[in-house]
Design brief:
The protein is α+β, with helices and mostly antiparallel strands and about 450 residues long.
């Protein structure tokens, strides 16, 4: 950032900035908070998402969590529906469909997901707000950088990190609550009975949150997130993204040094100071830009103070910056839209084909068959039934495939007692017609067959 003598730049306290503030020093920069249209839109997007994240984990319907990935029950409770772990491909499909949506948005509007809804960005802004609340504005933090901490500044720094740790811990507890009921976690924690595994997981998640949002921040967007690398091949000349109008803004000059050839950019540097990734949007499109619009709001504020037209930095396509018509419908965007529609359609169809009753049958590991007398042959099986719907709580068991048979074992299962339990069954028949036959176990609920599992009945060694 170049030093400027005096410029009419809006400050948080005064419209005049009389000295140069070194916001960036040796690679470290302090993000200056700003206000404006896009920051308001971002808050309208992020605060409901934050409320959903912290609140949804507490919601229960009929005593069951509304959203829970339960390892102990081998079930997924998803907004009033219970899925088995065999339905996990549906969640993978949902993630693929979501990725297609991100690609579609990237082609149309750039990295608006990163700037407005990405968890990394949301938590980074939360940590920045805590930093601004405890240690003061970015200019004050920049002046304090490198100086010895003592007295009130030291207390402010300690308070900041304590609040960061508190928010990171709450985040980790909430995230864990989507896999283990949050009430159980807090109940065990209040009695100091939380297991070492859960405690370690919470500590690790809290540490990662603290590091990602508090310490490394933009490094995640710059080096760890693959999405920033994808954008280069997704954008086209009609993609709307945060852009600096170079034709209007150059050459830069502050008001004292301006002449008839000067552009509208007064080189105040506010667009750099408010950027959460520390880039200068005036250098052109960059992989680190997350399209949060902070630089737009800051620049528009300066333009209003100077009685100039806003939009020096704005969402614009390459074609618009070159004063050429921009296409709304184009092949690449239509292609991503078609793939996204197919992906979401497949996922929605998959949710109509979920498993309400899961049955597993194993033959006895001992003898292939048991011969009780010259005419009676028996086969032993082990059966496990898992129910994932309240309508399938009572299950009647029957077999078919043998002309004359006897079934030994529970004829009716109460899944409230025997859910996911291996139960022994024996099927016997007299004078079998062939050495092996197809046998079918059938499972009924309310008189309607819910599942059928095929196996083999053997009466002769091979």
């Amino acid at each position: 950032m170049e030093k400027i003598p005096v410029a009419q730049i809006p400050d948080e306290q005064s419209p005049i900035v009389e000295e140069y503030i070194p916001f960036a020093r040796e690679g470290k920069f302090h993000v200056r908070l700003t206000t404006g249209l896009f920051q308001n839109l971002r808050r309208l997007t992020t605060w409901p998402l934050i409320a959903l994240f912290f609140g949804l984990v507490w919601v229960q319907v009929d005593g069951q969590p509304w959203l829970l990935f339960s390892f102990s029950q081998r079930s997924i409770f998803l907004f009033g529906h219970t899925l088995s772990w065999h339905d996990l491909p549906l969640l993978a499909g949902l993630m693929i469909a979501g990725a297609c949506l991100l690609f579609f948005m990237a082609v149309a509007w750039g990295r608006v997901w990163c700037g407005f809804a990405c968890p990394q960005s949301i938590w980074t802004w939360l940590f920045i707000r805590i930093e601004d609340l405890t240690e003061g504005r970015a200019s004050l933090r920049a002046r304090q950088e490198g100086k010895a901490l003592r007295g009130l500044p030291l207390m402010r720094r300690v308070l900041k990190h304590l609040l960061w740790i508190l928010l990171a811990t709450l985040t980790a507890l909430t995230f864990t609550g989507y896999f283990i009921p949050i009430r159980d976690i807090l109940g065990d924690a209040s009695q100091l009975q939380l297991s070492a595994g859960i405690t370690g997981w919470i500590v690790i998640m809290a540490g990662l949150t603290y590091a990602n949002a508090g310490l490394v921040r933009e490094k995640i967007c710059l080096h760890a997130c693959p999405y920033s690398r994808f954008q280069g091949v997704m954008f086209d000349r009609d993609t709307l993204t945060v852009s600096y109008d170079k034709a209007r803004g150059e050459p830069r000059a502050n008001r004292r040094n301006a002449d008839a050839n000067s552009g509208d950019c007064v080189d105040c540097g506010l667009c750099v100071q408010v950027c959460p990734t520390g880039i200068d949007i005036r250098d052109g499109l960059q992989a680190a830009c997350i399209d949060c619009g902070a630089c737009i709001d800051a620049c528009d504020g300066v333009m209003k103070k100077l009685d100039r037209d806003t939009g020096l930095i704005r969402f614009a396509s390459e074609a618009q910056l070159q004063k050429q018509p921009s296409r709304l419908l184009r092949p690449r965007l239509a292609g991503y839209a078609a793939v996204m529609a197919c992906a979401f359609g497949a996922v929605l169809f998959g949710f109509t084909q979920t498993t309400d009753l899961l049955v597993e049958i194993r033959r006895d590991r001992g003898a292939l068959f048991v011969q009780l007398d010259e005419e009676t042959y028996c086969n032993n099986y082990r059966v496990k039934v898992e129910g994932f719907a309240d309508t399938a709580a009572l299950i009647r068991v029957a077999v078919s495939g043998l002309a004359d048979y006897q079934l030994f074992g529970p004829a009716q299962l109460d899944l409230n007692e025997h859910n996911s339990t291996w139960l022994p069954y024996r099927v016997c028949t007299q004078s079998p017609d062939q050495p092996r036959a197809d046998l079918s176990f059938q499972f009924f609920a309310g008189g309607i067959q819910q599942a059928e599992k095929h196996t083999t009945f053997i009466t002769q060694s091979f």
